[in-house]
Amino acid sequence: MNMTTKKILIVDDEQPIRTLLEYNLKQERYETISAADGEEAVHKTESEQPDLILLDLMLPKMDGIDVCRTLRQRGIETPIIMLTAKGDELDKVLGLEIGADDYMTKPFSPREVVARVKAVLRRTGDRIDREEENGLLQSGPLTVHPEQYIAYLNKEELEFTPKEFELLVYFMQNKNRVLSRDQLLSAVWNYDFAGDTRIVDVHVSHLREKIEENTKKPLFIKTVRGIGYKFEEQKM
């Protein structure tokens, strides 16, 4: 995704500040969405999947610290720049400790905010590129380290049988591609069970039990009727 398509969530209870930031970010060809309170911020982060959040500290319903903490506890690693009228060093330290990526104190110039947004997106983008180079596989809250034979969902380590893990890795290496059962048999089992595609269905069922919140409405591994399966990419 290039810079012109990055989506920024602006969270502030003051309409003039939201309007000012929206205008300046759109001038830089960012897409913007906004929220006026903490609960709306959490909801929009999960539903809209922004690339970065500008998060005011003092918010109705749920303050910025609680929003940041909630998102990180749910495994959402979207970069966060915290905004506050406070100059209290404790707030800054606490915000950074619970997962904020940067911190700005009001009043600030819109130009400075845009510059910080660019810097944080560039920094986090470089990190993602390095992770891909290191073989890390990521899809939303699901992280897989093929070399270390470790997988995490919402930062909690998962346990798989060897074939379950191989199947998950193959799915994630082929995100958004429709894979037939025969393809999966060939790639993961080397046709040890040639013609017996039921073994694929059984392992997919086991995988779903471990990575899907609702196995009847899976987010990751979708069934493609009459063909096989597709692993759908989930944003952070």
In short:
This protein is of the alpha/beta class and 236 residues long. It is built from 8 helices and 12 strands.
Number of helices: 8
Order of helices and strands: EHEHEHEHEHEEEEHEHHEE
> What gyration radius follows from the Cα positions, in whole Å?
21 Å
Which structural class do you get from the secondary structure elements? alpha/beta
Q: What share of residues is helical?
A: 40-55%
Largest sheet: 5 strands, parallel
Strands of the largest sheet, in order across it? 2-1-3-4-5
Distance between the termini: 14 Å
List the uncertain runs.
Answer: none
**Principal-axes shape call:** elongated
Q: How much strand?
A: 15-25%
Task: Give your account of this protein's structure.
- The chain is of the alpha/beta class and 236 residues long.
- 43% of the residues lie in helices and 20% in strands.
- The strands form three sheets. Strands 2-1-3-4-5 form a five-stranded parallel sheet, sandwiched between helices. The protein has a four-stranded antiparallel sheet with strand order 6-7-8-9, covered by helices on one side. It has a three-stranded antiparallel sheet with strand order 10-12-11.
- Strand 1, helix 1 and strand 2 (31-35) form a beta-alpha-beta unit.
- Helix 2 packs parallel to helix 3 and helix 6 (162-173) crosses helix 7 (181-189).
Main attributes of the structure:
236 residues; alpha/beta; 5-stranded parallel sheet
